Amino acid sequence: MSIQLFDTTLRDGTQREGVSLTTEDKTRIARELDALGLHYIEAGFPTSNPKDLEFFENFDAAELRNARLVAFTRARRPGGSAEDDPAITTLPRLSAPVACIVAKSWKLHVEKVLRATIEENRASVRDTVAYLKTAGKEVIFDAEHYFDGFRDDPEYALSILRTAAEAGATTLVLCDTNGGTLPTELKAVVGRTVREFPGMEIGIHTHNDAGCGVANALAAVEAGATHVQGTINGVGERCGNCDLITTIANLQLKMGLKVLDDERLRRLTEVSNYVSELMNLTPDSHRPYVGHSAFAHKGGLHMNGIFKDPATYEHVAPEQVGNVRRTPVGELSGKNAIRAKAKELGLDAVDVAAVLSAIKQREYEGYHYEAADASLALLIGRTTGDTKPLFELETFRIISEKRADGQTNTEATVKLLVKGQRTISTAEGNGPVNALDRAMRQAIGPYYPELKEIHLSNYKVRILDEHRATAATTRVLIDSTDGKHVWGAVGVGENIIEASWQALVDGLEYGVNASSEKR
Ligand SMILES: [Zn+2]
User: Fold this and answer.
1) Could you read off the pLDDT of 371-396 as tens digits, one per residue?
2) 187 CA distance to ligand 1 centroid (A)?
3) Distance between Cα 382 and ligand 1 center (Å)
């Protein structure tokens, strides 16, 4: 059985609150998904907003090597005609060879929301599918609220699918639009529908409102669905869509269905991070399969097992999805963990006892290495002399000014010695850390061009020992990324600027070292 993967990150995924993609972002994501080997990329609803239209007008679908580009639209309005409806007549002139048409399959919705007769709803589906089919498009039909509709009146829900199939749709997609259906019921309905349409491609489109987005997609495949819709990282409205990343990994590694070749499966982690990055979302480190912590082993007993045989505490091998096994090192870790970490970093001659005692001392002072893999790698590298600092600090200075008109200005000046050259640089920022980051990059950027690819993705501050009467200690965690990988760095000080500076420097130093090793 072959499964068609249909990605709607660029259409349904953009419904997520706070997400806004430019046409350029969409183009980059579409190319990335194509390279991953997905079969369909639904890139938007061209007549719903000018940005989506601009994308479809400028992007040549023939550019995609693997995927077919899909334009989304709705069925024509009740009482109207497809020929006079711009939401439909716009599609034939676009290069996207596939049209995905959504229409209602729940009687309640037809009567209450559309205020149309059931016959008129069928006519609308028939006209729209036939029009786009005649225009030469492959037509995929999305039956909205299919599961609620089926619960209410199975014959009616099925009749809408029949109408779409007779008019020329080649794939019938059953949508759990409200995301509230549970796997057992969903599987039964999909099974029944598959039997009603022998030879037709039956698809599944699920949402995660009941926490079952992925589970429902898998249940549908078990019941005979052969087309799966979802989004990268499950981005989408409310609680999100079915996460295509997890779904792909499960289909292939758990259900034995070959959906991508092994080489492409190993790109899942990278693609997941890339899309988070372009959407400006902090990657959730606990995502199944691809999260930064998905294969991080912390408990002593677990670590012991992992060293003997990774299968003891891992459900799949991290490499299969392009992730890596991590053994976060903290004050509870033993020498084995340090050795494993050094091996992971490719460092041989590590004085394990010295590293361990340095970690213990630093953690006592307030450092925390579990979430700061970059700082830990640097700490180990410094003990062996494998890590060289990017520069030497002479001084830095920050001026923050609040004016009577409410404006705040911040400016940072750094004086550094970079590769033997003394450089002085001043930059403004929207806060002290931002100004400092800019001034430092400005000073060292010419010596390290790879810095352009690296930026901060997350900044966290914690005050330690709040109960102490003396000044509290501040711990800053900074995540940096080059768009493909994420790494964490830590800084500690009595002063938030000092703590931030340490984390900033570690984050950049690690990034530059990692990128020069790649070459
Ligand atoms: Zn949806």
Assistant:
1) 788 999 899 888 888 888 999 999 99
2) 18
3) 50
